[in-house]
Design a protein that fits this description.
- With 368 residues, this protein is α/β, with parallel strands linked by helices.
- It folds into four domains: 1-161; 173-238; 239-304, no CATH class; 312-368.
- The protein contains 15 helices and seven strands.
- It has a five-stranded mixed beta sheet, with helices on both faces.
- Helix 7 (180-194) packs antiparallel against helix 9 and helix 12 (310-327) runs parallel beside helix 14 (345-358).
- The protein is elongated.
């Protein structure tokens, strides 16, 4: 993810409602299930250790528990596995505890209770060790007993609740099986229960940015609600694969438009003239452009033009150009007719395009 995307994603968990959901996913116990957003207080995640070393944690929450010691939940955000994550978390926890002790947050002289959580947003399996013991060689029992120890919890797509799972999926909406409307519906229903306008606005803006970054050709109205976005995706893009198809078609249109228009005029004129000039030059051109665009977009540049039809195309272009000239009130005779007979196919096509665009004779013919 890009830096700004990382920052936007982290800011979601600056809201106690989402921090509470993350706690429930990390700790499957009754007290965590009964925790409420009002039990969470966010702490300053920037502090200095006893040696003057600065540390900026991603997010730290204090979870208040009635008649029980508080728990300090340290959140670290990862988009890819890191082999020595246990060692990193150990150093982060030590710095946090030093700061908590300095702030006299210890309970009755006891060490603060810390819950280290890694929120992993990647798609590959988290394969890094989750404890310090798994990183060091095996030692005899006496030496092992004196080694520092720490375990951290990993919350990913497989262990997360429905809500956190939906957030993680939308954070990297790059899988063909991703069901975008269902994921956004889960978040929409959850947001309605929170009754927090700031939270809703932040999450919805984040979803719009995610969709705009992943699918730059999809336009979401600035004032649209999440429910309206869900309805739009339900109608147009049932899944990620449908979005990819839409993106490919739109990009194909963009890249092939100029080629398609030019080829459409040429092929459309041929087909329109074959159906009969009695239908009118204007209708023939319109149909030719439309059919030419369809064929140009579908067939691309691969088909090309058959060399054996070169002479037929020249004749048709002369006929079309003659009709266009006569519509201006100028007879096709004398030197103009001679110039038309001498012109090559590309020159005829250029003059046809000039008359269609500008309505007047090309300079070469006007001076004839």
């Amino acid at each position: 993810m890009a830096a700004h995307s990382d920052s936007d994603f982290k800011q979601l968990f600056a809201f106690p409602e989402l921090a509470c959901e993350l706690l429930r996913a990390a700790v499957p116990s009754p007290w965590a299930r009964h925790a409420r957003a009002g039990d969470f207080t966010r702490l300053n995640a920037s502090y200095v250790n006893l040696d003057g070393k600065q540390r900026h944690d991603d997010i730290v929450w204090c979870v208040h528990r009635p008649a029980r010691p508080n728990i300090y939940m340290l959140l670290e955000f990862q988009s890819r596995p890191e082999k020595f994550m246990a060692l990193r978390m150990f150093s982060y926890v030590c710095l946090l505890c030093e700061d908590l002790l300095r702030q006299r947050r210890a309970t009755h002289g006891h060490f603060p209770l810390v819950l280290p959580v890694v929120l992993y947003s990647g798609r590959s399996q988290w394969n890094a060790a989750t404890s310090l013991a798994d990183l060091r060689p095996q030692a005899n029992p006496h030496l092992e007993a004196m080694q520092p120890e720490l375990k951290y919890c990993v919350v990913d797509r497989n262990t997360a609740s429905h809500l956190i799972h939906a957030v993680l999926e939308l954070n990297q909406a790059d899988d063909r099986q991703t069901r975008l409307p269902e994921l956004m519906s889960i978040i929409d229903i959850w947001l309605r229960r929170q009754h927090n306008p700031d939270l809703s606005r932040t999450v919805i803006d984040w979803i719009k940015r995610q969709m705009g970054t992943a699918f730059d050709l999809v336009t979401l109205p600035p004032e649209s609600s999440l429910e309206e976005i869900v309805m739009m995706f339900e109608h147009k893009f049932r899944d990620y694969e449908a979005l990819l198809e839409y993106q490919a078609i739109e990009r194909g249109k963009e890249k092939g438009m100029a080629i398609g228009i030019a080829q459409g005029i040429e092929q459309g004129l041929e087909q329109g003239l074959e159906r009969g000039l009695e239908q009118g030059l204007e209708r023939g051109l319109e149909q030719g452009i439309e059919q030419g665009l369809e064929q140009g977009l579908a067939q691309g540049l691969a088909r090309g033009l058959e060399r054996g039809r070169e002479e037929a195309r020249v004749l048709e272009r002369r006929r079309v150009l003659s009709l266009l000239i006569e519509r201006t009130g100028i007879p096709v005779a004398g030197h103009i007719a001679f110039v038309l007979m001498q012109a090559d196919p590309d020159q005829l096509a250029e003059w046809i395009d000039h008359m269609i665009s500008d309505g007047g004779l090309p300079p070469e013919l006007a001076n004839a």
